[in-house]
Design goal:
By secondary structure, the chain is of the alpha/beta class. It has helices spanning about 20-25, 35-40, 55-65, 90-105, and strands spanning about 5-10, 10-15, 30, 45-55, 75-85, 110-115, 125-130. This is Cell division protein FtsZ.
Length: about 130
């Protein structure tokens, strides 16, 4: 992860801000837009973008979470972008991930989207945009 701070549309962000552009440019089953991203970045605290890629959706999610500089219980706002290649994820798997996040941090506000990315082949990519309490 890029540990330096980069500015995206006026917001300071730690991580790969190109992922933010990919999120808002992607059409998907559940589409996220610039306002969704901005609502997470405008929250007080530090903003981070992390990602994980794996043939298993849960493992891709774990990679992205483990790249955060803190535990999920310190996250106020979280945007989760799920991307799939040849295999569309099952809704039960997606719901299980967001349910687990809510159990770990009942105060977390979660938004999520799902889009396709043929370059992933049989893998999944999970991108997290997180606002971490200061």
């Amino acid at each position: 992860m890029n540990n330096g701070i980069t500015i995206w549309n006026g917001y300071p962000v730690h991580g790969d801000i190109k992922e933010l552009d990919r999120i808002i440019e992607s059409e998907g089953l559940i589409t996220l837009d610039k306002d969704d991203v901005a609502s997470v970045l405008s929250t007080e605290g530090e903003s981070y973008v992390t990602s994980g890629v794996n043939a298993d959706l849960g493992e891709a999610f774990n990679e992205a979470v483990n790249a955060l500089p803190c535990k999920v219980d310190k996250v106020d706002e979280l945007l989760v972008g799920f991307r799939f290649g040849n295999r569309q994820p099952e809704m039960s798997g997606l719901s299980s991930i967001t349910d687990t996040l809510s159990e770990v941090n009942p105060d977390i506000n979660i938004m999520w989207g799902i889009s396709s990315d043929e370059s992933l082949g049989d893998s999944y990519k999970v991108v997290l945009v997180a606002s971490v309490k200061a």
